[in-house]
Structure formats: C-alpha cells, structure tokens
Amino acid sequence: MASPPFESWLRPGPAGLYCAPGDFHIDPAGPVPRAIITHGHSDHARPGHAAVLATADTLAIMRLRLGELGQTQALAYGEPLTVKDVTVTLVPAGHILGSAQVVIDYQGQRAVISGDYKRHADPTCDPFELVPCDLFVTEATFGLPVYRHEPDMAEVQKLLASLRDFPERTHQVGVYGLGKCQRLIKLIRQAGYDRPIWLHGALRSMTDYYVARGLDLGAVPNAMDATDKLAGEIVLSPPSALGDRWSRRFADPLAGFASGWMRIRGRVRQRGVELPLIISDHCDWPELIRTVTETGAREVWVTHGREEALVHELSKRQITARALRLVGREDDSE
C-alpha cells in the first residue's frame, strides 16, 4: 500500500504548519486549540493557545516571557507520545536551552520539523540530534552561500584581544536575550576570562533562568549597579541599546555585536558596529546542506529565511524541495 502524500496530512495554512491526523499546529502564528512549540523565541512561541506541548524548559521560558499559558504538557527528549493517529517525539535541536525538533510518525512515514537548529557545539544546551526521515522541514535563516560562520572561540578571542588593546573603553556587546547572551558568557568563561560580565536589565530574567538550571556563568552583575564607567569591562545588552542613551554611562563605549549577520559588511556598517563577532545560533550554508543530506529525506520543505536559494541548491542535488513561506520573521538579533 502506497504511503499518502505528505501534503495530505501535514500542510501549511494561515496559522502555520498543521498536522491533520494529530489535530495540532507546530509553532503556529496565532492562537490555536493545540500547539507544539519547538523553542521559546518569540517568532515560534506565541501566546493564546488553548493547549501547548513542549519541553519543560521551553514551557518555563514561555511562562517567563508570556505569563500564564493555557493547558500545558511537558515532553522529555526521546519520549514518544501518541497524539490521536500519530506518534510525536521531541529531540534536541541544539539552538537554545529546551529547543526541540518535532518528529512525527504516521502510517510508515516520518516527518521531522526542525524549528531553528545549529550544529556547532554549545555548552548551554543539548546538542543537535540527527534523525533520519522521509520529510525534513528546515529553516533557512542563513540560506545563502555567503554565510559561513567562524569558530566560536576565534570570535571570542577577538573580543578579549580588543579588551587588551583598548583598556580605556567599555566593550558593549549586543546579544539576543535568550540563548545568545548566555552562550556568549559561557564561551568567554571557557576562554579563561574570570572578571564580572555586566548585564543590561533586559537580559536578567533569562540569564537567571539558565543559572537556576545549573549553568555556571560566574559573576554577572547588573550594569546599572556599577559605581564607575566600566572602562576595560564587558557589558552585554540588547542590540537596540547599542549607541542609545543607556550607553552614555560607560567609558567611550566600543560597540560589538554577536550575530551570524555580522558576516555581511553592510549590516556591520548599518549597526555602527566596531567589533563584529560572527557567533550564530543557526546553521550556516554548509551546515544546512550537510544536515539535509544526512537526514536522507526524499523531500525537503524550506521555511523561515532564504528559501529560494536553498530550494535551488537542493534541486540541483536531485532532492525534491519546496518553499513553504510560513508566517514568521527574520530575527535580526538572531
């Protein structure tokens, strides 16, 4: 008996990707009766769902960011769950703490919805787990050949070298508050830096959650509590705080930005960044191609990013691919 086409049971719609035999959406764009959420970033985890299934960390992060949720169910990595006529399993995506790929088994077919993912080692979350499948739904945030991320520690060494070269200046680095902030702190610690790393208040709640989950980040005081201008110190802030009034309290602040977008010189100039740090929580172009190939998927759906370029490249490799164009947004702070 031939397997049903994927579009007959897993299909994009106005609210996002919908699994008909399980009657749930994955990372829906608006409130739905039943949602499975891959991770806690706001372009994937939205409020208003009647019922939410996710990892325990993603649910906790959603509560911190969104307030009370509806009915919730936490599912551990690797724990299969029967949902109506399908089996759902969550496996690590390697993106941020609690991030998961959604594995759906139905009538002998396996679909993997990756959410956001990365293959680089990250001391702040479980590593990406490759799952062989028939259909792979991949992001394409950095889905252009120009995007090739540098080794993380080499970028951290650029920051530490700048501190040595400009000890009279505060090094203010823009970071996304969930995932990037905590990962950068841990990388800096692994590089041997043991001084306090000062935080903008907007980064406090997520950082405290990571610490409560057992991640040792060392001293991370609030920048507002400093009694001097923090010359020669590292201050982390949201990217939006770079160069604004909040920065004026520091000693000739040197603006850095940790993001995969820092590969593009135009973005560096647009942001007024003096110290671009190419540190990403997503796959770069070679990693996207490698991951798709390693899954063995006979069909690939591409969403959230540079869809057309990746679809074209996969088609050249005789892999059936299509662009989903789901509702979402490109996260500039990444």
UniProtKB/TrEMBL annotation:
SUPFAM superfamilies listed in its UniProt record: Metallo-hydrolase/oxidoreductase
Keywords, in A-Z order: Exonuclease, Hydrolase, Ligase, Nuclease
Gene Ontology MF terms: exonuclease activity; ligase activity; RNA endonuclease activity
Keyword Hydrolase applies: yes
Protein name: Ligase-associated DNA damage response exonuclease
Taxonomic lineage from the root: Bacteria, Pseudomonadati, Pseudomonadota, Alphaproteobacteria, Hyphomicrobiales
